[in-house]
């Protein structure tokens, strides 16, 4: 038994010595250990934040009993800020998923119709809290994801109308206001890229067009101002930049 162990030990030492001599003699040695970082998988949950601006268009139309058939458009705007939650699935270079937002739309603006020393009317649009639920479909190109998105967008909106009679009026002003959560739709697209290649962080820039539909309200009669019915339509564009963090370890079915 001792002789067998001694024989194995001598053989191992001999092989080690032969390998060392071969390397020192310049014998070829092909094995070179390398490390290649794993390609980023886009599948999984992610959370993020966004910041941008919105430029809207509101059109007010007097439908009944309005002096000179008043109608005008104005351009509310504002600062957009909020958070994002979503989930991606990856199928080769194709990325698809669902994404939602909560935030502040910051849309505000006023427009009107003015007749000096006569009849004036103005409308104001304000939209603050907003949310979206959208689908996304994209394709990877050289590390960038080009995607299209569309779905639901709603916003907490206040629309008000003020009518005024400048002179010789028993009731100089009348007004009406409507505050409600308006349901609409959105469509757009964007670009998103992984920061540092395989990082869990991604950055994006995105454009959305949205339409919040029309709202109707009626001003009461007062003095020489009759009761009038109004409709106010609101749509707009939203441009924002965002950053997301992907939880790659949390995946459906895994």
Short key terms for the protein model shown above:
66% strand, mainly beta, 254 residues, 8-stranded antiparallel barrel, single chain, disordered N terminus, elongated
Q: Can you tell me about this structure?
A:
The protein is mostly beta strands and 254 residues long. The protein has one helix at 2-24; strands at 44-64, 71-74, 77-91, 94-114, 119-141, 144-165, 173-194, 201-219, 228-247. The protein has an eight-stranded antiparallel β-barrel. Strand 6 (144-165) and strand 7 (173-194) form a beta hairpin. The radius of gyration is 33 Å and the shape is elongated. Residues 1-20 and 31-37 have low confidence and may be disordered.
Secondary structure layout plus pairing:
Blueprint: H1 2-24, E1 44-64, E2 71-74, E3 77-91, E4 94-114, E5 119-141, E6 144-165, E7 173-194, E8 201-219, E9 228-247
Antiparallel strand pairs: 1-2, 1-3, 1-9, 3-4, 4-5, 5-6, 6-7, 7-8, 8-9
**Helix share bin:** under 10%
Task: Provide the gyration radius in Å.
Answer: 33 Å
The fraction of residues assigned to DSSP E strands is over 45%
Uncertain residue ranges: 1-20, 31-37
Main pleated-sheet profile: 8 strands, antiparallel, barrel
Spatial shape: elongated
Q: What structural class do you assign from the helix and strand content?
A: mainly beta
Q: If strands are numbered along the chain, what order do they take across the biggest sheet?
A: 1-3-4-5-6-7-8-9
- Number of distinct helices: 1
Distance between the termini: 53 Å
Oligomer: single chain
Write down how many β-strands occur, each being a DSSP E stretch of 2 or more residues: 9
Order of helices and strands: HEEEEEEEEE
